[in-house]
Amino acid sequence: MQLEGADGALDSWARFCALSDELFGGAGDLSAGPRLAPAVADLCARGLAELLRDHFLRSLEEIFRSNAVKKFWQQFHPYCSSSPVERINFCVQDNWPEDVLSRALEDICLEKSYQEKCVLALVHSFQSYEDRTPNRKSKALDCSSSLMPRYQLMVSSVLLTTLPLSFPEILNVYFKKKLEELSTMMAGSDGSDPFGNHDVFERSTTSDWHSEMDIDGQEPVISECRTLVKNIGKVVRDLRYLGFTSMTEDAYSSAIIWLLKSKVHELAGDDYRVPVLGSVKKWIQAVPLKFLHALLTYLGDSVDNESGSGLKSPLASRPSSFPGIGVPSEALVRWHMRLEYFAYETLQDLRIGKLFEIIVDYPESSPAIEDLKHCLEYTGQHSKLVDSFISSLRYRLLTAGASTNDILHQYVSTIKALRTIDPTGVFLEAVGEPIRDYLRCRKDTIKCIVTMLTDGSGGNTNVTGNAGDNLLEELNRDAENQENVDYDDHTNIDEKQAWLNAESWEPDPVEADPLKGSRNRRKIDILGLIVSIIGSKDQLVNEYRVMLAEKLLNKSGFDIDSDIRTLELLKIHFGESSMQKCEIMLNDLIDSKRTNSNIKTSLSKTSQTEGTVQEETDLSHDVLDATIISSNFWPPIQTEDLTVPASVDQLLSDYAKRFHQIKTPRKLLWKKNLGTVKLELQFEDRSMQFTVAPVHAAIIMQFQEKPSWTSKTLATAIGVHVDSLNRRISFWTSKGVLTESVGPDHEDHIFTVVDSTSDFNKNSTVNQICERFEMTEEGESSIASVEEQLRKEMTVYEMFCIAEPSYDKSLQQLQSFLSGLVSDEKLDMRDGSYLLRK
Questions:
Q1: Can the keyword Repeat be found in this entry's annotation (predicted)?
Q2: Dihedral, CA atoms, 458, 463, 464, 468, nearest 10 degrees?
């Protein structure tokens, strides 16, 4: 009986194998399928259901591997085996890889579809056996239910284990080319912006994009778009069918992101005066989202939020309505959020990379700053901005080649721009610290700060506001605007408002410095940040006093309205007591104007009363305007001996006498080297006008006596050193008024007046010397600088260092001595400094 049973099993197995081979090689003929049932039933009754299943799947795997899979990968072998350069040639072909991919997918999908029918034939045989033996427990039911999933797993495993490394790259190329083609179609055949052609998809309802869409529409553009999406959908469906679901989604996702980034780069460009973020968001809804909506609908993955079941993402709980789409599915909402994040991040990276140029162009570039602000609010990647911008500053700005003035203006623009991005000032603290540290090491920082604050427009053409306004006026308006915002005025508010403020409180970002309180960040004081570079407002006030003195002494008139306005603004920020000496200096100019008017009127009346006749060589009193200063309140003035022409000296003497008569007992002490002189020089064929320093005027006026002078003789005549004369007279040689020639003594040059332009012939050597002397002349100052004043003050302490016996006390002994003077109330100690007690 056992032998007969074994023979029966062998017969059934042989019959099953023969029918299976007939089924596999039937080339579409499935007639052998129903004949499997008896053999399957007999073998299942003998407990061989799992053996049947495994043998059947192994046979299918061998056939699928040797036929379909091998042929499928051979389609892509030319690309996979080519060099990188040759692959570029493949990519530029119009229909590659579309034709190859579509044909290969169609062939292998047909093979798989036929094998699935073969699997279903075996499943039916298992189910037929189960139906005949419902009360009998067997493994046939388990085999029938697991047969198709095992087959699908087998297909995916075979394909993935034989996958060429270049196949994902081929998919990326395919989706990139198709999406680029779709974007071009939507932009219109004339290459116009896609936002102007939104109706490409809006004229179609959602059902128009279903897998059964009619591509024979009346409008060619819409029809082409539908056909293109349908073809893409077929490829995606076939790839999913083969088990490449994850790889396919990665491929078209990366293609969409690539297209998005390309669009952001195209729209952003290097024009920072136009906002970009809004256009990018519109393009996302106009192209990628509509494509994804059409693709998901074609694939049957588009499910409305209302009709879905189970738990949904809170991100998609309240989807908005998109143009041309309506209420999107949860998958589309997720895609929308994902694309917007990539758009924000891409635009953010672009703007951060060009932040240095953007701040240089600020405030014209404020739209780019606003875009960056919104991007950072969405991504939260503020630290990337700080690190990148500090790196740019150190490489491009904080270098020896950059002028201090440019660094300061960039710092001010940085403050304004970053205040827009981060009103709390947290990131400004981090970005500004390297700039402040670098500026503290520059000797001209204080002077540049004062110039920037007080000169019209601060030397910066990008400053907003009225023409001629200085940066200080702009900062004053800026402070008033911030006060109107009222960041942290919590002193005069009621209890209800206090609770509202408490509820709206937000902690500082994690990048904030914990050593600096958040209340200090509520209001960004630009002037305070600039002064903090110096470390003390006294240094800035002293530098301003020196520069104001220099400016007032070089004025040719008494127009000081702008200086008074600047002083009033400085008094608001630094206090009246700090600016008292500067105020006295300006009052000296006002008094000088009044005194000049009184003296000129008095001298004129005296001349008329006495009937004095003015000679041709005499100068009128009307040509003299004297600036009378209170020397105790002005910075130390650099004096230089100068002998002026007799006519000028007489004019100064008459003026001083009349001043003494009016202002008894006060007397004038002339600083003849200071001031300005307006001259008109008349020659045979021309006349020339100049505004020069008194020493230049004294030089040229000597040539009224005789047309030629040697340098030594002329230096003696005007009372200056020969080297100083040679430096100053180069001004007149450079203007073509005098010519220079070598005298008998090679160190004693001869200077001659040029009566006619035809007599003037300058050589290159003289030109170079003149240029050098002019630069030296511009660097001279009539007021001692702050450094020179400090050096003079330190000479007192120098005596203690070089005196006999030498100073040999330790630092502790000196500190103890000074502390004793404080205890005796002879000194005061304030902020680490010892001051005389008042």
A1: no
A2: 30
Phi, psi angle pair for 637, to nearest 5°: -105, 135
Listed in sequence order, the residues at least 6 apart from 771 whose beta carbon sits closer than 8 Å to its beta carbon are 734
* Backbone angle region of 523, left / alpha / beta, with phi > 0 → left and psi within -120 to 50 → alpha: beta
β-strand pairing of 738-742 with 749-753: antiparallel
Q: Residue 754: name the closest of 766, 769, 772 by CA.
A: 766
Alpha-helical regions (H) of 422-444: 426-440
Q: Which amino acid is at 146?
A: S
Q: What would you report as the CA-atom Rg of the chain, rounded to the nearest whole angstrom?
A: 46
Closest CA to 351 of 435, 267, 422: 267
| Count of C-beta atoms within a 10 Å radius of residue 175 | 23
Cβ atoms of 9 and 22 closer than 8 Å:
no
Q: Tell me the C-alpha distance between 666 and 725, whole Å.
A: 34
**pLDDT higher than threshold 70 for residue 462:** no
State the amino acid at position 476 in one-letter form. Answer: N
pLDDT at residue 323 is higher than 70? no
Residue 684 in tokens? 């045979």
Single-letter code of the amino acid located at 563? D
Q: Is the previous residue joined to 434 through a cis bond, with omega within 30 degrees of 0?
A: no
Residue 624 carries which side chain, given as an amino acid letter?
Answer: L
CA angle 173, 174, 179 (to 5 degrees): 100
Contact assessment for residue 257 and residue 292, using Cβ atoms and an 8 Å cutoff: no
Q: Is the pLDDT of residue 213 over 50?
A: no
- Percentage of the chain exceeding pLDDT 70: 74
Name the nearest CA neighbour of 186 among 286, 85, 38. Answer: 286
The one-letter amino acid code at 535 reads G
Residue 710 scores a pLDDT above 70: yes
What's the pLDDT tens digit per position in 415-454?
888 888 888 778 888 888 888 888 888 888 888 888 887 7
Looking at this protein, which amino acid is placed at residue 205? T
Instruction: Burial-class residue 631 by CB neighbours within 10 Å (0-12, 13-18, 19+).
Output: exposed
- Between 265 and 481, the more confident residue is 265
CB 432 within 8 A of CB 411: yes
Region of 682 on the Ramachandran plot (φ > 0 left; ψ -120 to 50 alpha; else beta): beta
User: How many Å apart are CA 738 and CA 715, to the nearest integer?
Assistant: 16
Side-chain-facing half-sphere of 206: CA atoms under 13 Å: 17
| Answer CATH for 639-759+767-780 from 1.10.357.10, 3.40.50.1440, 3.30.230.130, 3.40.640.10 | 3.30.230.130
Three-state SS for 615-663 is CCCCCCHHHCCCCCCCHHHCCCECCCCCCCCHHHHHHHHHHHHHHHHHC
Predicted local distance difference test score (pLDDT) of residue 344: 92
Distances in Å between the alpha carbon of 39 and those of 19, 50, 200? 9, 14, 59
pLDDT for the residue numbered 714: 86
Distance, CA of 838 to CA of 831 (rounded, Å): 17
Give φ, ψ of 53 to 5 degrees: -60, -50
| Residues paired with residue 834 on neighbouring β-strands, in sequence order | 829
